[in-house]
Amino acid sequence: MPALSKQVAHVTSLRKRFYAAKPGKEHLLTILDQAEVSEHVYNSNAIENSTLSLEETEKIWLQIDLDRFITEREIFEAKNLARVVGYISHKALERELD
Fold first, then answer.
1. Could you tell me which residue, 64 or 96, shows the higher pLDDT?
2. Contacts (Cβ under 8 Å, ≥6 apart) of 79
3. Among residues 16, 57, 59, 69, which one has the fewest Cβ atoms lying within 10 Å of its Cβ?
4. How far apart are CA 23 and CA 36, in angstroms?
5. Which residues contact 50 (CB under 8 A, 6 or more apart)?
6. Among candidates 53, 27, 31, 26, which has minimal Cα distance to 42?
């Protein structure tokens, strides 16, 4: 079996285990998703040379005042990417993403 096929089979197996364990834990999964939004946004923006720290990214997402001046562009990018992460999470609940 080629390496890619093994990886796809492994991911499929993990997905099945996740869906089997999911019932009754939806609230916990929502909390985990929300807790990870700042990390998703921070890491994605860091690739694009953002000057935001993880703490600043979280403050922007939670609409808390920041301790230093940050350009409107960086704030805009962080807020919009957080919306995208939320949108993808919502769509993933409706149907499997491909």
1. 64
2. 60, 61
3. 69
4. 21
5. 42, 74, 77, 78
6. 53
pLDDT above 90: percentage of residues in the chain: 20
Q: What residue ranges do the domains of the chain occupy?
A: 24-94
- Token output for 37: 């939004």
Q: What is the DSSP string of 45-90?
A: HHHTT----HHHHHHHHTT---SS---HHHHHHHHHHHHHHHHHHH
Cβ proximity of 57 and 38 under 8 Å: yes
CA distance 8 to 88: 21
Tell which wins on pLDDT, 62 or 83.
Answer: 83
pLDDT digits (tens, 9 = 90+) for 63-90: 888 888 888 888 889 999 999 988 888 8
* Identity of the residue numbered 11: V
Reported as a pLDDT band with limits 50, 70 and 90, residue 48 is confident
